Amino acid sequence: MKKVNCWLYRLFFLVALFCLFAHAAFATPAIPVDRDEFSIGNTVTAEFTAYGVKAQHTGYKEEIKDSRIFYTRRGTADPGQPLRFTLAAKQSLQGAVQELEVTMQPYAEMNRYAGKKLEKFYRKIKGTAGKRLNVNMEYTLPKNSRLLVATVQLKDYYKNGNQVLPRYTTVEYELNVVGFAEANATQLSGKTVKKVNDSKGKLMIIEKKGTDAAVAAAGIGIPVLAALLYWFIHKRGKK
User: Fold this and answer.
1) Tens digit of pLDDT for each residue in 215-239?
2) In angstroms, what is the C-alpha Rg of the chain?
3) Where are the transmembrane segments (predicted)?
4) Which pLDDT score is estimated for 151?
């Protein structure tokens, strides 16, 4: 009877650990989001948000005389889903119309200067006089792209005495497109990735799935290992 109780206790301990890590085993990883505010001088001009992107600030150049600032950010993009970019402009003047220019330049190679350029995407958006500009757009990466240079430029206006003058906030994202080798360590963990060869060469097929096997294995494996460790310590203590 004592032996049965001991095994029941171990089973209860294993189930408790499994429940503790169950959320890690079956949860779908959250989409990465890159968000930052941009400013000229002490004035915040806009907030850019990129979904499906993980990036960090790498530098900026400011031209105070011409009211221009150029930000650069580097990171990675997830090719398994459309990238979504939003902009919320912070400034608006009565009678002034804000403008946004978006350029997406994908490359077939990792080097933007030596790599083959793929089809460029360009869009120009105008706001309404006296109202803040809010933009929400999606962009789907070409299948064979390995690098994306996304440039977003906001033209708004400010008042200097009796003058209404333009100013420009430009943000450039240089994004490496996550490949097959990085799939298990990045935001592709919510999808299955297959590499195949056909007449056109190597291709990467990305499919959505309900759960991630690697995360599930970790979630289930941790409590199992903990239970085995407990059993080993318990058995050794008896000796």
Assistant:
1) 445 455 555 566 666 666 666 555 5
2) 26
3) 213-233
4) 95
Tell me how crowded residue 40 is: count the other CB atoms within 10 A of its CB: 19
Q: What's the pLDDT tens digit per position in 131-173?
A: 989 999 999 999 889 999 999 999 999 888 888 899 999 999 9
Domains and CATH numbers, the chain: 34-185 (2.60.40)
SS3 per residue for the chain? CHHHHHHHHHHHHHHHHHHHHHHHHHCCCCCCEEEEEEEECCEEEEEEEEECEEEEEEEEEEECCCCEEEEEEEEEECCCCCEEEEEEECCCCCCCCCEEEEEEEEECCCCCCCCCECCCEEEEEECCCCCCCEEEEEECCCCCCCEEEEEEEEEEEEEECCEEEEEEEEEEEEEEECCHHHHHHCHHHHEEEEEEEECCEEEEEEEECCCCHHHHHHHHHHHHHHHHHHHHHHHHHHC
- Show the tokens assigned to 221: 């494996």
Q: Is 30 exposed, middle or buried (0-12, 13-18, 19+ CB in 10 A)?
A: exposed
The residue that leads in pLDDT, 10 or 60, is 60
Which residue, among 73, 83, 72, has the nearest Cα to 32 in the 3D structure? 83
**Phi-psi category of residue 95: left, alpha or beta, with phi > 0 → left and psi -120 to 50 → alpha:** left
Residues with Cβ < 8 Å from 126, sequence gap 6 or more? 97, 98, 99, 100
> Which residue has tokens 């990466």?
141
d(CA 143, CA 166): 38
